[in-house]
């Protein structure tokens, strides 16, 4: 039986314990937080181990990996967490159950159009750019972005996502997490279904949970060291 033992199960337990402690500090219910396994560059076997350890939400950055792993691993809710591009948005619409990285424009329109033509409505989150990366929506443009995305048939606006600059310490991310929550609260009157906050990664997920995260995108803390990136992935 030892051959079936996996360090992933221990990692899941540590992450869940961290979430529970953060929820206790914030007076929250741990069941309100989902772990999204950020599986970029990890293979189907690793994803299956995560699923078997109880994490059934898996995030993918690349369409090619999403397609291959979805075909190989059952019992998973597939999140697209990479940059949504117009050239592959129609494929994301076919493969993803949730999309975290929507911004208004051609890619979002193509995603929605393909989903609608298939009779689907995909839950989506708008990415907010606090770090000046050029991906995501600037804070000042968010109200208009929400109106644009909410008006698309084939998608349903359910929340906001952000990816702060890589922090030197977990506390460095707190201002971005606080601001994302404030924006969600300010816009929820107009968009009452916008309840999800996708924020926090391996280093800072406890801070994100303290500030209201409902989904934390955890990779290395869950899987271990990430394999080298194949730059040919799309």
Secondary-structure blueprint:
Layout: H1 7-26, E1 34-38, H2 44-52, E2 57-60, H3 63-72, E3 77-80, H4 89-95, E4 98-102, H5 106-117, E5 122-128, H6 142-150, E6 155-162, H7 174-187, E7 196-198, H8 205-210, E8 215-218, H9 220-223
Parallel strand pairs: 1-2, 1-8, 2-3, 3-4, 4-5, 5-6, 6-7
Overview in brief:
This protein is an alpha/beta fold. 39% of the residues lie in helices and 17% in strands.
What does this protein structure show overall?
The protein has helices at residues 7-26, 44-52, 63-72, 89-95, 106-117, 142-150, 174-187, 205-210, 220-223, and strands at 34-38, 57-60, 77-80, 98-102, 122-128, 155-162, 196-198, 215-218. With 234 residues, it is α/β, with parallel strands linked by helices. It has a single domain, classed as Alpha-Beta Barrel (TIM Barrel), CATH 3.20.20.10. Strand 1 (34-38), helix 2 (44-52) and strand 2 (57-60) form a beta-alpha-beta unit. Helix 4 (89-95) crosses helix 5. The model has no long low-confidence stretch (mean pLDDT 94).
């Amino acid at each position: 039986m030892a051959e079936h033992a996996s360090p992933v199960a221990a990692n899941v337990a540590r992450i869940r314990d961290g979430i529970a402690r953060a929820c206790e500090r914030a007076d929250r219910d741990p069941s309100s937080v989902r772990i999204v396994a950020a599986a970029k560059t990890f293979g189907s076997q690793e994803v299956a181990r995560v699923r078997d350890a109880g994490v059934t939400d898996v995030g993918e950055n690349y369409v090619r990996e999403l397609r291959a792993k979805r075909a190989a691993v059952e019992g998973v809710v597939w999140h697209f967490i990479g940059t949504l591009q117009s050239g592959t948005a129609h494929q994301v619409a076919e493969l993803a159950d949730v999309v975290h990285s929507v911004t208004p424009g051609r890619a979002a329109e193509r995603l929605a159009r393909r989903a609608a033509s298939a009779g689907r409505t995909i839950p989506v989150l708008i990415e907010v750019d606090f770090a000046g990366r050029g991906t995501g929506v600037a804070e000042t443009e968010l109200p208009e972005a929400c109106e644009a995305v909410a008006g698309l048939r084939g998608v349903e606006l359910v929340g906001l996502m952000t990816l702060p600059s890589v922090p030197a310490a977990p506390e460095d991310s707190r201002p971005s997490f606080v601001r994302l929550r404030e924006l969600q609260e300010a816009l929820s009157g107009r968009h009452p279904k916008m309840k999800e906050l996708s924020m926090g990664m391996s280093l800072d997920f406890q801070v994100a949970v303290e500030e209201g995260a409902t989904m934390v995108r955890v990779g290395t803390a869950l899987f271990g060291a990430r394999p080298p990136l194949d730059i040919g992935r799309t």
